Amino acid sequence: MRSIVCTRIAGALLLVYSTIVAAARAQSAVAVRGAPELESKRGVVACVERRAAEIGAAVLAEGGNAVDAAVAVAFALAVTYPEAGNLGGGGFMLVALADGRTAAIDYRETAPRRADERLFLDANGAVDSQRREFGHHAVGVPGTVAGLAEAHRLFGTRPWTELVAPARRLAADGLVVQPALAAGLAEYAVDLARFAASRAQFLHADGTPYDVGETLVQADLANTLRWIEEGGAAPFYDGPIAALIAAEMAHAGALLDARDFAAYRPVVRDVLVARFRGHELLLMPPPSSGGIALAQMLALLEPFALRERGGFDASARHLFAESSRRAFADRAQWLGDPEATAIPVEQLLSEAHLAPRRASIEPERASASAEFGPPVTETDAGATTHFSIIDGAGNAVANTYTIEERFGSKLIAPGTGFLLNNELQDFNPKPGRTTRDGQIGTAANLARGGRRPLSSMTPCIVRRDGEVVLVTGSPGGRTIISTVTQIVLDVLEFETPLAAAVARPRQHHGWFPDQIGIEQAFDPATAEALRRLGHVVQLRTRQGDAHSIERDPASGRLHGVADRRTEGWCAAPTGE
Ligand code: GLY
How remote is the CA of residue 171 from the centroid of ligand 1, in Å? Predict the structure, then answer.
């Protein structure tokens, strides 16, 4: 007890000290302001964690563009939000510049070249869930550092070192632990303790996790960030960081090796473009399933003229669930890594494909998932995080990146200081086995050497008349697609103010399990109305974390909205 009290007092003193240090630094540095919701004409960063948002806003204040800020925020989140912010994972960055250029940067992880579809099957052909979830065998080649370097090479305007250094300093000087991080560490302390370097980084010598107000110094991470600051992506893929991870993998008998790191490349893809109510939606193509699914859902819904039928009520929610059911069935059947799987993108988005599916939707009755998709849940605890940035010139970034589960594989390779993903879990676990509880076994997304697992990450930028008006995205596994679609639908169809659209209780229907998951704050009468239409309605605690920004093209004014389901924060350069 005494040591806990001492720790708490020491923590409180450290908090005071650290606050003073931070304030002193802030005064000597560029001034930024922040709030969960704010307006600015000079640029806004909306993300899950306050210090990362401030680092991004400082880059904007110093003249950096949205991509510069995105690179700095992504590195900072790897320090301040280790449950999902990462160097050891991968993701997607959508860029829309004010001059009209767009890009979809795919920095998804890849499977080791020696992997095959039996990656997670034991000798009896059963799925080995421990191997899928924890440690070495679940790790794909991380793409984050290569993706950020590529974004910077293509669109950055500030020196790379300036964008990495703030994160490196935070890791070296230490970070005062906030409630969200403390809660995450406490929840995952037992899992993190399985691996020596993870234990040493996130837990005290006695095995207790860092508590609120204590200072977490991440010395190995600071060293890794220094390598990256000085050498770009090379030390990560063809240098000491790859070597440290490869040594750890070899020690554990895992497939990932230095050649897999050397072979890794991010891919710059054409943005997937969809249209809805006079807007142009910029979306991520495969290996994201989110772009196609969102576009399908909105295309299915548009002719129903939901707004004229009333608000975002039980009837609209029913139609939304029915469109989700159909889009997720296609997702299960068709989507995977586009380099390895023939994906009929145009056909999936065509009226020829969608019209009969729309016609099968009955406004007064739930259909059955078994009528759609391949013959026949998910956990929504994914460790993904999304941030949105628009700068004062109207350049926009929607970035969603992930290490798959919270704290990823829980594994830190000794000497590297960052958690490795367990993204290979996103491959279909067992060929041929598609079940009513949501497990998918179709060929489109089976593990093979070098393949990217199918993702649900759905960064989204909306333009009207060529100008960015909305940036959004979310974590949440397959529910990401539902969260982002709901927000876009809410804002564009119902013209709901962004803050209300982000706050509105969410739903998810993922084909199988054949049910609508609803957040606890969901209106009980609406839930009951959905049940009466024949839906199974299942309560879940929360869904998604959608830090979003809208922009008024006439005035250039930005309105950032952090999702209050977490400790999300918006930051902007000081001034109007
Ligand atoms: N790991 C979550 C996703 O990519 O969908």
Answer: 26
